[in-house]
Amino acid sequence: MTIIGSHVNMSGKEMFLGSVKEALMYEANALMVYTGAPQNTRRKAIEMMKVKEAHDLLNINNILLGNIVVHAPYIMNLANPAPEKQQFARDFLTQEVIRTSALGAKQIVLHPGAHVGSGEDEALKRIIAGLNEVIGNTANLDVKIALETMAGKGTEIGKTFAELATIIAGVTHNERVSVCFDTCHTHDYGYDVKNDFDQVLLNFDKIIGKNKISVVHVNDSKNPQGARKDRHANIGFGHIGFTALNYIVHHPNLLLIPKILETPYVKIDDKNIQAPYLEEIRNFKEKTFKKQGVLAHL
Fold this sequence. Notes:
The chain has helices at 15-25, 51-60, 83-103, 120-137, 161-170, 183-189, 197-207, 242-249, 277-286, and strands at 4-7, 30-33, 68-71, 107-110, 113-114, 144-148, 156-157, 177-182, 213-218, 220-221, 232-233, 259-261, 266-269, 272-274. By secondary structure, it is an alpha/beta fold.
C-alpha cells in the first residue's frame, strides 16, 4: 500500500487533532505538520495540542505514528557563521525535536542551512557541530533529523548527495540522521529524476545509502532541470510530470517510506484557493493523471 499524504495545518482549537482530520479529508495515510508557524518561534504548549485525541483518531483509521512527519521552521540556520545565530538554531532545534517526540512523530525534516558567504567547507563543519549538540541534548528521544535535499539556490548547503554524506559522516550518533528526498529540489539542482530516477537512486545509494531516505517530498517543479530555483508545481503541471513522479511514489525501494505532497494551493476564483491534495493523492492511488476537482482549475 502506498504511504502518501500532504502538509496539513495545525492551528485553532483542535491543533494536532485538526491536522489529522484534514489529512483524512484528503484520503491520506500520512501527514506532515509544523509545530507552529515556520517563520517564528511562537509555540503553544504541548498540553494544548490535543495529542491524545489525535492519536485516538489515527488509531481508528489505522495510520501509524511512523507516517507522521514534522517539518522544522525556516528561521533556523545551523550553518550561520554568527555565533549567536548558530546557538539560536541549536537551541530551537532542540526544542523542536522535543516537541516532535511529544507529538509521537519519529522524524523532523530540516533544511541543513546556508553558508551566507562564509564558504561551504566551514558551513558543513558548523552544521555537523550543531547536529551533534542537538542530538546530544535529546539523547533519550527516538526522533530522527531528516536532512532535506536542497535545490541549490543562494548559498544553500545540502544540494548535492556528497554534501549530505559529509554531514552524516561527521555526526557522532548518525543513526539519528536521515534524509528527506525532495523531488523538486533534486530536479532543480540538476539530478535527472524525470528521465532516470533509478540512476539517481543508485547514485544516492553509493554516496549515502538508500536506507537513509526516511521521507520523500513529492513535488513537481515550475523550473527546468538545473535551474536551482525551488518553485513547486502541482503534480502533472510542471517540468517533472505525473509519469515520473508516479514512478517514484510507487518505487519498490520507497514503498514503506512516507511520501508527502507540498504542492501549491489552487486558485478557484478571485476570492478562493483550495488544497489540491485529495485529487493528487487519488491520481497517485489510481496511477492515472486526471484534471479532476480542484485540479480542473489549473
